[in-house]
Design a protein that fits this description.
The complex is a heterodimer of chains A (148) and B (644).
Chain A (H helix, E strand, L loop, with lengths): L5 E6 L3 H14 L3 E6 L2 H9 L8 E4 L8 H10 L7 E6 L4 H9 L4 E4 L4 H13 L2 H7 L2 H4 L4
Parallel strand pairs in A: 1-2, 1-3, 3-4, 4-5
Chain B lengths: L9 H66 L2 H24 L4 H34 L7 H100 L6 H16 L3 E10 L2 E11 L2 E3 L3 E3 L13 E4 L3 H4 L4 H6 L3 E8 L5 E9 L6 H70 L6 H29 L8 E4 H11 L1 H7 L2 E4 L4 E4 L1 H17 L8 E10 L13 E9 L31 H11 L3 E7 L3 E9 L2
Parallel strand pairs in B: 9-11
Antiparallel strand pairs in B: 1-2, 1-7, 2-3, 2-4, 5-6, 6-7, 8-10, 11-12, 12-14, 13-14
Helix pairs in contact in B: 1-2, 1-3, 1-4, 2-3, 3-4, 4-8, 5-8, 8-9, 10-12, 12-13
The chains are: A alpha/beta (148), B alpha+beta (644).
Amino acid sequence: MPKEPIRILLADDDEDDRLFFKDAIEDLKMNTIVTTVNDGIQLMNYLGDSENQLPHVVFLDLNMPRKGGIECLQEIRNTKALKDLSIAIYSTSGSEHDIEETFIKGANVYIKKPNDFTSLKKVLSEVISINWQYHTSGLNKETFLLSI
Amino acid sequence: MSFINSKITSPIFTGIFITSLILLLFISSISYRQMRSTDESGKQVTHTYRVQLLLAELFSDLKDAESSQRGYILTHDSTFMKQMNIDLEKFPVVFEKIRSMTVDNKAQQQRLGYLNALIKRRIEILNETLAQSNRRMMVSEAILTSDALKSKLLMGKNVMDLIRREITEMGEMEMKLLKDREEKHQDEIAFNPIMLFLLAFFSLIVFIASFYKINKDGKELKVLNQKILNRNRDLEQQILSEFTESFAVYKTGDEFFNSLTKDIAAKTGLDYVLVGELAKAGDQNVIKTFSFSEFGQVSENIQYALAGGPSEQLTPGNLYSFPAKCRFMFESNRLFQQFKVEGYIAYALSDAYGNAIGLIAVMDKREIKEINYVESLLKIAAKRAELELDRTLNSRLLAAKNLELERQNTELASFNHVASHDLQEPLRKIQTFISRISEKETTNISPTGKEYFERIQISANRMQMLIDDLLTFSRTNKADQIFESVDLNVLLENAKHELAQIIEEKDAHIQSVHLPTLNVIPFQFQQLLINLISNSLKYSKPGITPLIRITVEIIDGKNIPSTRAEHQKKYYKISFIDNGVGFEQQYAENIFVLFQRLHGRSEYTGTGIGLAICKKIVENHQGFITAEGKPNTGAAFHVFLPAS
């Protein structure tokens, strides 16, 4: 029985990063559907549109124009229909402050964008392979930052 | 105030004065009366003798008339007759004189009346005798033998005896009267000297007593004046010391200066009190007041130029005392003209280095009288004001510096942000693209191209490392980190875990004694351990097993060969001793400076930030770090942290 593909949504304003992300996912050859949006506004519009099926996991960049990742995170967690969505923070920043804040505000995992393609593939594969249904409750601060 | 209880009481003085006055009046009146009495008694004596004289004259006249009559009877010469008539004519005049002189004496008047009657009777008898005589002459010659004549003569003689007796009695009565008066007078004169003597004696005593008392009081007054003077001085001292004590309750800054000027105004009663800082307005020296009190009330601050005034050249510690006529002495000074200042006393304030920094002054529209007091007060106030002024100026400087520091911190924070995000992003992309090319395009690139790519990758990685270390370094800047009581053994284990890969690679040995539990910033302290251990591992000597020993001891500050150690304090000395390449001792300080490296980049990787971070972390913990090195033998790093 063919498995249902994993729906992945990436919100990132950087075109290069979107390209790396899609290339990496493609290289993983997993049963996935990747959708990308360019900023927070587009993300919220996409999630609010009833025609779109909700993704299994959202990769959220923090530093975006118009509406930043932290804002989106807060909005998602405050929206009843979206509050159980799995959210992986996907940021250049490795600052303690950002890690702490996103953890408190309810992100499920924090990924610091790796410096090379191999690492990127490795970390994405790990995140996608998580059975989110069971992972959510088991998350704690020590394992929040996913280090490769 | 017991000294006011004086022995000079005015009732005593009033009593003495009144007594003296009464005595003097008494003496005067007695003397007067005595003089009057003496005068009176003199007059009485004269009077008595005159009455007696007149009585004698009266009797004599009568006798003269009698003898003239006898002469006539014998000779019948009319000359006798004439003489008798002259004598008889004198009689009423004398009699009247006597009568008028004894008019105030009834007994004498009675006697005089009787005498008058007798005299009249005698004159009648004279006339009758004379008539008898004349008849006989005509009848016979033998007059003398005539019985009638004889009886008349006898009768005359009898009346004459009566008159004589009466006159004698009257004379005696006058004498007796005189004698009575004399006696009375004598009594008075005899009594008065004693009385006078007593009075004089008494007066003398009163005056001596008064003199003694006045003398004594004078001395007491002198002592009392001295006491009052001393007391005034004491009071002044007391006010001054109270004033000094009142500083204790003063607050700081503006409130301090307001309290100060108000207090000085209250204690001196002078119209204006000001304290201010010396400042520049253009090229003019001005005083900007911190507090200015007018008539005891704190008023709006003023600013005035020192030019043309007594304190034009402000010399620290100088007193400028012009208690009177200021307005006329300094005609060009606008301050004095504006406030119509007559008296001015000021004291220049200086900072700890002896530079003039301000002024404290009092001014009045009238002459300042209590110069010494005001000067003392001002000097005391100045000492305290100097400290506060110095403090205020310093805290102003500090506030400006703090502001500058805050601005710099903000800049640093935004730099951190730039470093952590914006710098890293293109770098990460370069690295990712390189990794993509070397993965996907290996077949299309020449071996030289491949090598170049590798070099690009190394440089990019190095830059990544620099950025990360710089971020770590700037993060250790933060002073708002929280201290926690942490077991250092746990932090060491964490550090070893973090460095597990390189430890394994180098097959390094880390030996540690049991570490204490200290109050530290955990994240920073762990970073310190990581940096120190990784530094030792990085500079390990090729060919030998790297060995790192960690020791701990408590050491007295005075035994630490570092100027940073406080002698009376105790310190934890945590040492990290390795057997690596070491270094020349002369670089022991340099290695902690940011970006300072002792080796070429090709020999050892490193950014020159690691030990600078160590230094910063130890300093965040109020400690210090030193290094010892011996080339080719090893290095030792000593972290000193205050114990307790």
